[in-house]
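Note to self: the last two entries modelled the partners one at a time, which told us nothing about the interface. This time every component goes in together.
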Amino acid sequence: MAETTTFDLVLLLIISEAIQQALVSSDQSITGAIVVVCTLVGLDIGLSFVKQRFSNVGKVLDGLPVVILRDGKLLEDRARNERVDIEDILAEARRLHGLESLSQIKYAVVEENGEISIIPRIN
Amino acid sequence: MLEIEEDPAFARMEWRAQHIGWIVMMAIVVCASVGLLGQGPMSDRTLRGSNLEIRYDNIMRNGAPSNLTLRVKSPAVISGDTVIRVWADEAFIESCHPVSIIPMPTHVLLNGEITYWYFPVHSGMSMSTIRIACSPVQIGIHRGNIGLEGGEEFMLGLLVLP
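The predicted structure of the combined assembly is written out below.
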């Protein structure tokens, strides 16, 4: 989610093109477009209110952060389910903190938006 | 100590939901490829009689084009007549929602809830093919009748998907 690849972008464009027909059908009017935009934006705003009011809804819609590495040890089951491997963690550790090995990492967390946060071990 | 709103039980549930989502998506692709969502081998239906054969998609998609083909044994062969008379009831017209017929009928006759299409044929023809392009606009399960005047008729079951 955090890093969109070229393929993801192409996929997004194709999906939006495919859904566009189902949303507006043969209605080419500006009114139709305004109705669709207002509905979608309104839905987004409405959901943000609901998430603010009910934290459980936010959990379902956005997910929660997941710790995938603790004290230099990879939590394999979690990492596999999040589809993250050691190379991904090491790459983020190098990029964010200039770390060299897993043993220098205290925690690695997959955030709600898909980014990997690295907390270095303090010696 | 890392202060984080972690919920392993919820995460497991989320992963399970994700896996179910993948299975559903795969099932949709498989169903679409075999025609269970229309336009495929499993939605292709052929009804055969002695003088009339109808080939059509019994699963259609709302607004999507779908062809219905009638193969008619020429009336010239049977009775010396040179006009094929095809009729369809209101239920068929509403469910199939024909947008074009090839060849164009020379006459269209409305008789109550029945529509008649007349197609002149050459006396030398043994079989004639009539193609009706449908573009259904009513979602749901429909049943309609189509047939030859004074001849065979078939009830067509159609499922129109959203």
